[in-house]
DNA sequence: ATGAAAGCGCTAACAT
DNA sequence: ATGTTAGCGCTTTCAT
């Protein structure tokens, strides 16, 4: 900038004026400055500018896995909103590891990001407290972070309820639930929705029809249930990895799956799903964030995004004859 | 920092020394400083630090779509390498729009990123010239950028060759090629591989068996071929979006597809693919980048990553009887 | 072992 | 309309 000023025979500040399109510069001078800029290949150092101005026009995104379709869709939406607000986006994957999440978040904060969108990897976000107090905005997405920050979730419980109710409506009375580790917020919520649906239909909860745990064990868990004395006639899976695990194990039961996935419509039968809205999640989270960055006050908000039931065949299958006939309880 | 210095009763520089773990500080003083840091909740401003030091410890990643599984897998690998080098990563999607790509790249350069990994959206990267001359490192991934920068590609031509040869080995003599717009580098390369495989097998190139264009038209293109007088007995698809379009259109021909995709193994029959290595692409690109950032000189390198043929059933089907019997030429 | 001063590249506030 | 000075938060250089 100094060089440009010298080359154009003006003071530093004039160059600054031109670069920032501030008023108070003769067209002629401006032209001389612009010529010098062009000739010297000058580019404003945005970092220095932002250091001076106090805002960084940068947000940080921490998700479980940048490579996962659900989260990367979310990331795409966050990116769009960020760009619309003239901000760039740091992104990083926590890999579901609370320590890595913390390191990433703190690294972003050290860069003085204006705000953070976080998919919490762990339950404890105490480390964020000082940062929030220091003025960083933060929004939790997909799961609550245990702090009084804005939070955007999917309607996990209501979605599971709708999916299970869909199966019950087809005449199923014994519906299995295959979910992830109940320590995971979404897994627990979906299980609750399943239970509520059964209860509302006047059905008791049979613990032998519920298996919670790592996706890679879901196939075996279902095999065991089906081999048991009083097997399920339909299955509700709690997330995509479990759904895929069940399908890979060769099972093709009447099925409703929580979370949509690529090509679900091409399988035979097509897989009926309770679709979430990853883009909506990202967009909403980012919009809340920028409201806060713009100075929005008020208590933390908690928004639940609706799910959508997409019938494709697997969820519309009736109970296999003989497995749960009339009189069966 | 000033506040910490005051609170600890030392000079600014001493705080700096402690924070940077530089030698020349008595353990006792260090302790006093650390206590003040803790008490005041001080966090070093990394941006200011990096402004002074001249490096930003930041790289930029520009891909087609952060939400696409292939590119987001690549991004994950780039991120890992970046973190291993103590750098953070800006990421952005070009959406295949050269102007957006340019804007993103320039925005990253204005933030003085140390380097860039770019999946080129357009053929013209002249705008990058001044930035490269200014010292930014850059690596092109997945497609060449038309500049003398390091480039990492998949073996598009060789991969297509292998896939087509696989079909020919099963007795197919009329293999259709459904590819994307040949203006896209990868599409053209894969077409070339297809042609080479036919030529090496002593087969002439039948233009009526080649359809290049947007994925959403691939289904109709294949339907037309199959309804023609001398239809193909097998199909090679040039990318995943085309593969899916063909399958969605209801076709289940003997098929080898370029690029792997989630659940290819669960379809009936399983889809035989020529798998690329998105993580390898990202890792290699990032490693080359950090070599350059570290000061590596020498001419631009061009690396091709091998593909892998994954037989799953669809590519092992013989010609349907009567469509291409002996004597047919 | 510790500190004072200069400066990274820029903008804000106040001259002229 | 243009220029000067101070300072964002830090590190570097050179004292002490």
UniProtKB/TrEMBL annotation, chains A, B:
SMART domains: HTH_LACI. It comes from Streptosporangium pseudovulgare. Residues 310-329 are annotated as: Disordered. Keywords: DNA-binding, Transcription, Transcription regulation. This is LacI family transcriptional regulator. SUPFAM superfamilies: lambda repressor-like DNA-binding domains, Periplasmic binding protein-like I. PANTHER family: HTH-TYPE TRANSCRIPTIONAL REGULATOR GALS, LACI-RELATED TRANSCRIPTIONAL REPRESSOR. Residues 1-53 form the HTH lacI-type domain. InterPro entries: HTH_LacI (IPR000843), LacI/GalR-like_sensor (IPR046335), Lambda_DNA-bd_dom_sf (IPR010982), Peripla_BP_I (IPR028082). It comes from the Bacteria.
């Amino acid at each position: 900038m100094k060089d440009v000023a010298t080359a154009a025979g003006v003071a530093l500040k004039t160059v600054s004026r031109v670069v920032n399109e501030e008023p108070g510069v003769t067209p002629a001078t401006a032209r001389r400055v612009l010529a010098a800029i062009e000739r010297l290949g000058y580019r404003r150092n945005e970092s220095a500018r932002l250091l001076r101005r106090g805002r960084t026009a940068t947000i940080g995104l921490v998700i479980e896995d940048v490579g996962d379709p659900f989260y990367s869709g979310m990331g795409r939406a966050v990116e769009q909103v960020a760009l619309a607000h003239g901000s760039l986006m740091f992104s990083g994957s926590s890999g579901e590891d609370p320590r890595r999440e913390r390191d990433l978040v703190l690294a972003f904060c050290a860069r003085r990001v204006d705000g953070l969108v976080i998919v919490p990897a762990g339950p404890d976000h105490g480390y964020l407290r000082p940062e929030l107090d220091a003025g960083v905005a933060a929004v939790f997405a997909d799961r609550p972070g245990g702090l009084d920050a804005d939070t955007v979730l999917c309607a996990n419980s209501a979605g599971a309820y709708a999916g299970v109710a869909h199966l019950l409506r087809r005449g199923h009375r014994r519906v299995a639930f295959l979910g992830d580790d109940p320590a995971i917020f979404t897994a627990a919520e979906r299980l609750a929705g399943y239970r509520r649906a059964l209860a509302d239909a006047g059905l008791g909860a049979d613990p032998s029809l519920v298996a919670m745990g790592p996706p890679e064990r879901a196939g075996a868990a279902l095999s065991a249930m089906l081999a048991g004395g009083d097997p399920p006639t339909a299955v509700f899976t709690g997330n995509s990895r479990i759904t895929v695990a069940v399908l890979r194990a060769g099972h093709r039961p009447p099925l409703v799956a929580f979370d949509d996935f690529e090509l679900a419509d091409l399988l035979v039968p097509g897989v009926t799903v309770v679709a979430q809205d990853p883009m909506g999640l990202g967009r909403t989270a980012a919009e809340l964030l920028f409201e806060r960055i713009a100075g929005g006050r008020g208590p933390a908000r908690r928004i639940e995004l609706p799910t959508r039931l997409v019938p494709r065949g697997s969820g519309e299958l009736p109970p296999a004859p003989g497995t749960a006939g009339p009189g069966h309880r």
